[in-house]
Amino acid sequence: MRALMLACALSGMVVTSAVAGDTPGVTSTEIKIGGIFAFSGPASAFGLVGKAMLAYVQSINDRGGINGRKVNYIAYDDAYSPPKSVEQARKLVESDEVAFMFSEHGTPGNSATAKYLLSKKVPSIGIVTGSSKFTDVQNYPLTTTSIVSYDTEGKIYARYLTRTLPNAKYAILFQNDDLGKDYVNAFKSVLKNDFDRRVAAVSYEVSDPTVDSQVVTLKSSGAEALLVAGTPKFAAQAIRKAHELGWTPLIILNYPSASVGATLKPAGLDVSTGVIVGSITIDPADSQWDQNEGAKSYRAFVDKYLPGIDISENNYLYGYTQAMLLERLLRQCGDDLSRANIIKQARSLHDVALPTLLPGITVNTSDKVNMNYTQMRLQRWTGDHWDLFSEVLDASSE
Fold it and tell me: Which pTM was predicted?
């Protein structure tokens, strides 16, 4: 690196502050960034996020890169297995020498790699988990999140149900990890002393083949509403099993399962009629967004870089949105790609209205708030499209 710097100086080239600071993964022509996704395994639907990000980064490079640098986004598969997540994180940091991590997917994987990345002083930006623990800026000083926290989302759903079904019992099917438990705790914080009397909560393991028995148990509780707090495979199973049982609760899906392609289609589009989700992004397959500039740009991108995909699969759109946020961050960093400036700029995003976000949803971060998203809007599946029926909501919305 020193030899390169000397050569650059002797040739009259401008040595950037990032190179001068010897930031790993940064040269005058390239920046390396790492990502980890479940390209295989029980949560492989989320691997589509990584595929879309890789495609968008290619589009950035086709446009000349950013500030003269090509973006080398290196994404590995952890199969939704925490030990594999650690292995891949070590490879990215120690072998590939990435400047920072961006969009690492999953609560289990991020939980497993967080301590290691912090010890190596590697920023982990826009992680794809809403686990509330990662919103603690003091304990996660080099982290920002890119999903509404599960605690915030759970409170939005709990308050919605107390308004619409004030005297009913509620059921929660939750993944038995930090993801699922955050939703349960959110309901506890809203319902307080009424929680045990009014809520039936049953967990499942990611290794379970089905959640049929759990749905049977929840039906027997007499609940009039069902929140599924998990991942698409199990959400689809729950919708389908409830239908087979003749159980017709108001069904709410958490955001990680809010995909037409990954959840509603496998469950049955007609069977899924009436399902409610909280979302931050538009549905580019929905004709109501035909004149939306964000939807039109996304469709053009898909035609060029991801031809033949199922455009109703929301995880592709989310990955595209994540990559736009990455581009915004890199441009905001300017020519200072030091790790200190990367985390500084990641926490200095103000009123960023990405074109694929729902109207009213913006990205805002600060020294005290490391969450890219703190708002959602509720929408209901009609059988062939989403009906957006709420204003912008957050944890304090009544």
Answer: 0.87
